[in-house]
Amino acid sequence: MIDWIAILQAGIASGTVLLFAAIGEIMAERSGVMNLGVEGMMLIGAMTAYRTAVTIDQPWVGLLFAMLAAGILSLLHAVVSIHFQADQVVSGLAINFVGIGLSMVLGEGLSKAGAVSLLPTITVPLLSQIPVLGPILFTNHNPMTYLGYALTPAAWFYIHRTRPGLHLRAVGEHPAAADAMGINVYRLRYGYVFAGGVLAGLAGGTISLAVSPGWFSELTTSGQGWIAIGLVIFAQWNPWRAAAGAYMFGALRRLILDLQGPQTLLGFANPFFYTPRLGFFLQMLPYALVILILFIGSREAMKKRVGAPAALGVPYIRGERGT
Amino acid sequence: MSASAPLPDSASSIPYAVEMRGIVKRFPGVLANDHVDFDLRPGEVHALLGENGAGKSTLMNILSGLYRPDAGLIRVNGRPVHFNSPRDAIAAGLGMVHQHFMLVPTQTVTENIILGLSEPRFFLPLDQLDQRVLALQEQYGLRVDPKARIWQLSVGEQQRVEILKMLYRGANVLIMDEPTAVLTPQEVEELFHTLRAMVARGHSVIFISHKLDEVLKISNRITVLRQGRVAASGIPAHEATKAQLAQLMVGREVVFTVRKKPVQPGEVVLSVEDVCAENDRGLPALRHFSIQVRAGEIVGIAGVAGNGQSELAQVITGLRRCSCGRVVIAGEDIANRPPRAAIERHVAHIPEDRHGVGSSPGLSLAENLIMKSHRRPPISNGWVLNLPMIRRQAAQLKDEYNIIAPSVEVQARLLSGGNLQKAILAREISAGPRLIIAVQPTRGLDVGAIETVQNLLLKEREHGAAILLISEELEELLTLSDRIVGMYEGRHMGELNAEEATLAAIGLMMAGTPQGKPATR
Question: What predicted TM-score, i.e. pTM, was given to this entire model?
């Protein structure tokens, strides 16, 4: 039988990874800069975290370095796309490949590193006693999962109810208006691209040190950075919707793994049981779902008139007439 | 009526609110400001007059800290200042209301007003801030819902938000860049009322415009710029005349009348019947709109920008789908047919967007000129272009329509606005149109080019073309049109004959009050 509680519990953990990456990308895109290099930045983060943990046996320092490494990579994107006003799509894709390439080189031999200290798991007293929800949300989770619970409301509040958040939205919607009011458009965009990189690094580190520990070269992230980018659009740049999508996708990924386990499903013979070919098909499904969700999400966005930040993808040049 | 209260002169002890001396600003290939002097006395409205490209906006962008001057000196209340960014200018009490509003459409009025301020530090007590905005509104009689989002507001209301934004920052000097360009005549009156109230409270206003009547009405003094230089400095408004100002602006004498010959209208060429369409945001832009245009007449559409005029032109020319109704051209319904259906029925389109829709900026002048005739001989055999023929025809059009360009091979984007518009007219009119859809045909052109364009349209009218003229310049509508139809929120607001139409009546239609004859179909 399928253990639904276990699937949801694991789904929450792996959804946290998507959540970090998606909220990071929301921050960058809200400021008007699209960074398609999330996958590469996550991979750099995962590699750096694991490498650090292997070398000095300090998983927390590993996470910190992961954030820094991905943040530095994102600054490369910032320089190219903000300072030199290059095309953000091209630059983002380049960053992605730089990230993947660097992690392959620097991560060589890591997969055979042996036992490593990972992030601890925590069960929250009292809260874990709640029926159904307790085991899913508050039992045997790594600390990053709990951080994820706090990050969603914090990000929403920051964007919509604080002065820096107001400036962030203005810079992404109408940079000329923000500039005319004395807001430094370039500095803010640099800052939020960096923040996006830091969160992508954290997402990567969370994978290699907690959710699925180890280094499996590019399979460590296996395209989750791209799912995160899809989630940002599905979420309409709203952290709450991003969280819903992230946890849903996390659970789905988990369910697909578990579907290949039991011999029978609901009393029928399981067609996926130990059939590698169908296994690949199953693993493809979340990515196909991204396409479907993008399609539905964009239609809904058109209807409700919530869309991408108006200046998303457009380099800001002061004094250039653009109406 | 210009208020002529006693004002401090340069010799008195009260320093100028703003003083600019010897301002020079170069852009690649252009000397935008050439040693410009400008001063503003406390408590006056000082108009800055000039044609497009005369350097008004550049000068004010320097004063508001957006550009840095290459040379020159600025003093505010007698103290020299150096602005590195708009923040510095705002801190010195200078507030600019841009022609294209600098408002974030998805944010609320209050959010826009507090944007960029260092107070509050972190958390936004939105209800409390709304109250503060309301209190400020009360003080100046500028009403607008603080919780409304900018995209929900009318253009006049958005302008109020811009003014409030500056007052909230304690701006003492208000720089208004072409503030009346987008307003109905009634809204212009309201704006003038507000400006007078502000002057009475000790604020000073720099009023940038190219509309002579308005400048004479609101300002105390007038400075005229021409080609980056001061053509006249601080002349008192009550001593100035319209003809004198026009001559200063253009550098030659200007005749204000365009002669319109009487033409007997013929059969109906265009009949738009009960058309509905949505705008780019998916909101209704045309609501059961009907209009007819006959051969040999010009029908003008009056409306504030964004009330469905652009969408109407797009539906007729096949660039936008309509969800109901018919577009009948010479007896045939071409609604929702591709643009080529309209082109083949000899519909000429002079679009609003000259660079995106009207021309292909990267292609040569010659290529732009044959864009509508490239399918047929003699330009092509349907497949291979006849290049010598293209060059010959383009050169002929260039001479005939007096398009100033080094050659027909020059890229269209290098043409000035007036010459590009002449090129578009040459292409559209030389084909012998039955129907001309002209959208803002003279916007942003200098006086000479305006004359040319208007006379070309009148000539086509005499040749029996049906012309639909969409314009925000009410004077233009009054001089060119035979009938004027008001448009508000995509609806027909009635129709006036040109002889009986007054600015006041047109203004009422633009603001949503029906006048004259209702729509017929």
Answer: 0.77
